[in-house]
Amino acid sequence: xxxxxxxxxxxxxxxxxxAEVLSKLLIIFVVGISVREPCAEQxxxxxxxxxxxxxxxxxxxxxxxxxxxxxxSSETGLDFTPQFPQGAPFRLLTDQAAGCGICIGxxxxxxxxxxxxxxxxxxxxxxxxxxxxxxxxxxxxxxxxGKGRWCAGAVFTDIDNDGDLDLFVCAFNAxxxxxxxxxxxxxxxxxxxxxxxxxxxxxxxxxxxxxxxxDMDGYLVTxxxxxxxxxxxxxxxxEAFQRGLIQVNPQRQASIGPRYRELFEMMSxxxxxxxxxxxGQRDYLYRxxxxxxxxxxxxxxxxxxNHIGLAATWWDYNEDGFPDLYVSNDYRGPDxxxxxxxxxxxxxxxxxxxPYLPWSSMGADHGDIDNDGHTDFFAxxxxxxxxxxxKISLDDMRKDKWFLEFARxxxxxxxxxxxxxxxxxxxxxxxLTGLAATDWTWTPKFxxxxxxxxxxxxxxxxxxxxxxxxxxxxxxxSARDDHWQSTPIHKERNFVFRNLGDYQFSDVSRSWGLNxxxxxxxxxxxxxxxDGDLDLxxxxFDEPLSVYENRSQTxxxxxxxxxxTKSNRWGIGSRIILKTRSNLQAQQLVxxxxxxxxxxxxxxxxxxxxxxxxxxxVHWPSGQIQILNHLExxxxxxxxxxxxxxxxxxxPLGDKxxxxxxxxxxxxxxxxxxxxxxxxxxxxxxxxxxxxxLGPGMAWGDIDGDGDDDLYLGGAAGDAGKLYRHxxxxxxxxxxxxxxxxxxxxxxxxxLFFDADGDSDLDLFVxxxxxxxxxxxxxxxxxxxxxxxxxGFIRADEGVLPDLRDAGSVVAxxxxxxDGDLDLFxxxxxxxxxxxxxxxSRLLRNEQGRFIDVTHEAAKPLEKAGMxxxxxxxxxxxxxxxxxxxxxxxxSIRFLRNDRxxxxxxxxxxxxxxxxxxxxxxxxRDLDGDGxxxxxxxxxGWNTPYQPTVSRPEVLFYGTFPELQDPRILEAFHEDNQLxxxxxxxxxxxxxxxxxxxxxxxxxxxxSSVRDTFDETVxxxxxxxxxxxxxxxxxxxxxxxxxSFHPLPRIAQTAPxxxxxxxxxxxxxxxDICLAQNFYHAQPEIGPLAGGVGQLLSNQGGGQFDxxxxxxxxxxxxxxxxxxxVTDLNDDGWPDLFFGVNDGEIAAFxxxxxxxxxxxxxxxxxxxxxxxxxxxxVTFTLWDGTRQSAEVYAGGGxxxxxxxxxxxGMGAIPAGGRIAVRWPDGRTSNTVVAPGQNMVSLxxxxxxxx
Length: 1250
Known about the structure:
This protein is 9% helix and 37% strand. It is mainly beta. A hairpin with an 8-residue loop joins strand 51 and strand 52.
């Protein structure tokens, strides 16, 4: 099979070469001239007088036992030990004021980076780097002590643009400090003169030239001042009104009273209900007028909000050259992503650019984690790294459930890692990378610590007290009480995660020597000894400063120091792109990163074994671009901005502009699926997810016989299904069908067009499902609508369908008994209120337009098939009889072999029973060119808290527990060799109140396992379900040897996938894969699982599928996508894509086609009873002998029906070939495809002569 695919690839390469030559000749002779697109290479190399190259120092001794060596203060002179002042208000220990800040920068321009540390109100310290790891305290000489002011974050920056570094220091409840560097090691405090002496809850200032006028502007992030009784939340609505905290205008609209607007915020909880929560001071955006005078410009710039801020990070997320800003806010105030509009104004795009946000956001950092040239972003939270820690700190769902479900933007209690797609919409992949839960994290720091060419991540952890301990906070005094002073410091270990590539990080904290146990707040990186590796300095609470020397001996590196001329003098905000033979790296130069931390303002690139740099490109804030070609490694490069004006380019050097495979289109009418609110958790509080949010399904079929496909979109309960007619102008127009409106209370699952009554037009079958209605409710009956012409449908007569009232999922049609008409499989999804139980799935035989349930006699295994999510009629073994593949939630993929109309379960013998999953969808096509049908199955993915393996499966128990009358769900997972509760104490006790005496505290629950709680005699009486695979997979058909499982690439596992289509989208002769992703309705403790944007994978042959970046594919569907289908909407011969979105608008994408390759469309017409030849098996053999095979399906994917027209890629040369069809009745035909032919229409029984 792989050899066949390899030959196909070789053939395609030959075709492409010929086509490229032809296209070049065409340009030369037809166009006559060639106009080159301006690109970076045309700019030429940077003159040598603008680059200074300095060799890096030889590295010292290698690591004795660890990569980093902690150096004692006796050796370095960095004798800094924070001491929290005696008698200081204890409340200062409860928030950001407990930490000491750090920044690194070469203030005296001697080439050695110096260190500045803040120290509460006891006096800050400036240490001059003398070289060779010796530092001297020069605080007094420099005049930067700041004694008497409670100081927080500090940063070196060139305020006056004179080329040396000034120093800005934040003070709490006192004027901030600005020290202007006067040279000769002296500074002068000038904050008031420059307009920067704000007095309040300052945390950190971050500088960038946001208006690109050549000087540094600033953003000051603030926290909250405790103002005594005023700052306390009211205990009742009456108190809130009496205090004037809430006021109501004549229009009955509530707002916060003026005196309280920097103390509280308000969030709607529905009509007439609001929630108050603590707020902070407003932040301040400062604009530099060019003379060094700063003005607050919040209002004209559009900066709003008064949240409890902890960090602000400049980050050009959309890479348009204008610095954007991410603001990290604690508690319930949402993080903000301020998009720079380029005209001095900003708008908050967090709700549209990011899937969701951390709840209690701490520090943040950015870097290119996957070496794709786009800068990614990490935002830290406080989620425990162990199940026990999570259960004692993040479990109070009594008061938080509403917020987790309904806050906008959505927030979750964990770290976020945003992957930059280059489209303006980011993915979220913290669980995929293993970085979602790192304890009480203050400062994250990206850096290539081992110089292997991939950035790693350091994490600083801990807190002065364990204020998140629910037992202490619920049974003892408040967090602001003296009670906490008697409790111990909450020490946690720091982490460092090595980037292994392919979105995998490994915890190397111990082996790298960075697993310090304590309370670590700030951290800064810099190459302190100029030997080419990143060193690390970390501040702690009541402990000496940690100074970590990096003693790596492997991996080349370079440092880059910028000198701006038109841009700001240190080039802050520049984007630097480095290319080697095998790698691409990108960095944005920003100093302030993490929490009250600032790095040295230079850029470090680790290079691994690469010994030559192809080119280094600097995108300056001014818009100018400089390129250095063929650089030596292991040097510091000082680059002065070129004074010449050059045309900017918007892509990394060497990238070729590409037309996206697809472009999003606006339909003539909005096609929208609408849900109504329903609380699934009311009847089953331990449900893993909402089951009322599984749609919509969609089906394409030619209902009016005009030659194009029309659309039915399933409706949710309370919103009728919708029919859209495809007209001659390639537009979809809604058709009002009375019976659909009358049936609006049904919850549509899968719809299906097929000829039910043998009159050669397409009727409509719709599965009814959901959990809104009790078992056996009339509204759970499936429906069959007869097509009566003129866009009309009526309900089929009673008795046409059996009176089945099960909550179903999927329907698929095929002539399983080969009698000439189409029969139906109907999948059972769940028994309402009794998840994970399901009714029997059904096999309905078509007997002259009436459907008879023959499940028991013909397909008995279907009676216990489980919670079926999708189904595919497909000839697995190639014998001409359609078999049945089923995907199941909490089970294995089921394989029922068709033995001449009777089905045998061969799940075990085929190897499918070995992999259990939360399977969602399935689609089939020949993926490797060997002539049989392979399959892709969708699953939950790897980017969730669920991380099952064969040896450590996820477990679900169901049944009646002791002392309870009704059955309950209980989820569990393996951690530390025990079976742990998946859910927290609050939810468990709500569902099982008999356990309250067993778990009187959160700590008692956190220390207990499932087997500690229930003995084996109890568990053995419960139904047990297991999942050992969460990956979406390719199932390669191995014939008699069954199937082999192949997980899709890691980035395709970014979110739960539902819909799937298999089509050769670019006509290269190899079948590609497209996935519909995301699920926003997991149980509230987990939150939305929606880090994806849809994924296109290009078949490279040999079983390799390459993920196509969203910027190249053109696909960006970040909504709650379910169904996914294919049709040719604009009739250009190229398959277009349609995503069905839960509670949202359909997302439609038009295929851009290929300027090189050619597509063949094959349309089959079957006999009466099966007019679209459902079940036909088609093989297209190209002129070079390579082949592609596909089947005509009615149903498959996830709740989807594609067009029955098949498409086959012909590659660069449309030289023709041969089409072999095995028709549904077993007869065969062979048809020649002439060179240049792009459409073949075949009628069963009327075959052209060969």
